[in-house]
Every structure is written in C-alpha cells, then in structure tokens.
Design brief:
- The chain is an alpha+beta fold.
- It has six helices and eight strands, in the order H-E-E-H-E-E-H-E-H-E-H-E-E-H.
- The longest helix is centred in the C-terminal third of the chain and has 16 residues.
- The two termini are 22 Å apart.
C-alpha cells in the first residue's frame, strides 16, 4: 500500500474475515470481594486471521496487513498468524445475587471506582433509583472498562462501533444496563495535564458512544438502556452501511 485509498479499501474488504473471540471468568466460591461469584470479568477481541502463506500473493497480502497501526497485537494460532484489531473488557454484576456492590468495585482496578454512582441502596436491587426502569429487562449490569481499536481502523465510517455493537449482543444480551466511562485512554499518562487536549479527545470518544445509543448519566458516566431501541437501531444502521463488505 502506497497511499491511503488502497489501504482503506483493503481493510474494509477484510471485514468479512474477522472473528469475534470471547473469554470470561468468575469464582465458584468467594473468599473476598474481588472474587465474588456474582461478578464476571470478561474480555473480547476482534481478530483478523492472515492468509496461509501458500503462494506469493498470500505472502504479499499478509505483509500489507503487518504495517504499523493496523493491529493492537499479533499472535500465532498454530501455523496461522492473527491480528487483534479491537479489544474490549469489563465486568458484569448480577444484582440479584451480589451482596456488596461497592466492595466488589473498590477491590478492582481504580477505573471501576468511576462506576459507583450507578448504584444506590435506595434503589431496587442496589441500582440507582433513576435507573430502576432498566430492571424490566434483566438484573445484570455490564460495565465496559476498556475498548481499544487499532489506529488504522479508525475513521472508516464506524468499524469500531460496528464491532462493539456485535460484541455487546453476546456480552449484554440480557442486561438491565450497560455503562462506560468514555475517556481517551491512548493519551499518555504524562500528557494528561493538557486539559485542552483531554477535553477535545474526550468529546470525540463521548460522541462515539452516543452514536451507539449511550447517553450521559452523571460524573462522566454514560449508560445504554437495552430495553430501549436506540442501541439496536444504531447497530442496524451500521450493518446496513457496511453491508457490501459483510
């Protein structure tokens, strides 16, 4: 690839080869708040398997996809090389069974402290009273901690949003609520004192989640209510837009 146009087209033409991979873990018995069996830690990836290097054309096609910024990670599955182009991870809480919501959040990475405002003892099952209507669709709250896409796949009309939407069909299919804390995690820690840049890039990230049916709740938390149609409608529009590549 010598210019931007062929790179964009080739990436989009690779969409129908992507595989979504899921993994999750929970404890059988609790010994502390961190391993409460009412919480499930999960992660998912969008993976692009490269061609088997059977001829020069396949080798050349693979080489074009090994350039900088096209993947977050490169791994081997047997003889086949794979590229991770998007990763997402988080936590699912079962409000029906969980005993200590705040302790479960506090025992984990500091990022999870941002999600404490979702919960309030005055609400049903510990969910904030402003969100109680969500319990009509389930008792699980899905927290998206991190979502990252390789730089080369950004600006292609919503590839990242399409993949997140497809992942959430499995991760949050029966959830009462899905929440995230939109933040530009790619800003280096030593550059986060630049408030102008932080605000500008945070706005971009928030706009991305808003286009997936998420809306602001409070303290930089954004929520998606699965019992409403905004998220499903947004994903369907993306599927239509990318229809010729899928």
């Amino acid at each position: 690839m010598t210019d931007a146009a062929p790179e964009r087209v080739e990436l989009l033409m690779s969409l129908n080869r992507l595989e979504l991979r899921f993994g999750s873990a929970t404890s059988l018995v609790a010994s502390d708040a961190h391993d409460d069996p009412s919480t499930l830690e999960w992660g998912c990836r969008a993976v692009l398997p490269l061609w088997e290097p059977e001829d020069e054309e396949a080798v050349a096609d693979n080489a074009r996809l090994l350039g900088p910024g096209i993947s977050l990670a490169q791994t081997h599955q047997g003889q086949r090389q794979e590229l991770t182009i998007l990763s997402m991870s988080g936590l699912t809480l079962d409000l029906w069974r969980i005993g200590h919501i705040y302790a479960s959040l506090d025992s984990r990475d500091a990022d999870y402290e941002h999600f404490a405002p979702l919960f309030d003892k005055s609400g049903d099952l510990g969910l904030h009273s402003d969100l109680e209507a969500c319990l009509a669709s389930g008792t699980h709250v899905v927290i998206i901690d991190r979502a990252r896409i390789a730089p080369a796949w950004r600006g292609l009309g919503g590839v990242g949003r399409l993949l997140i939407g497809r992942m959430l069909r499995w991760v949050a299919g029966q959830a009462a609520l899905v929440a995230t804390h939109p933040y530009p995690i790619d800003i280096p820690v030593d550059e986060r004192d630049d408030r102008t840049r932080e605000t500008r890039e945070k706005t971009v990230v928030q706009r991305t989640w808003q286009s997936l049916g998420f809306e602001p709740f409070r303290e930089d938390l954004w929520v998606m209510r699965p019992h409403m149609s905004a998220h499903d409608d947004a994903v369907e529009r993306l599927e239509t837009a990318f229809g010729r590549y899928l």
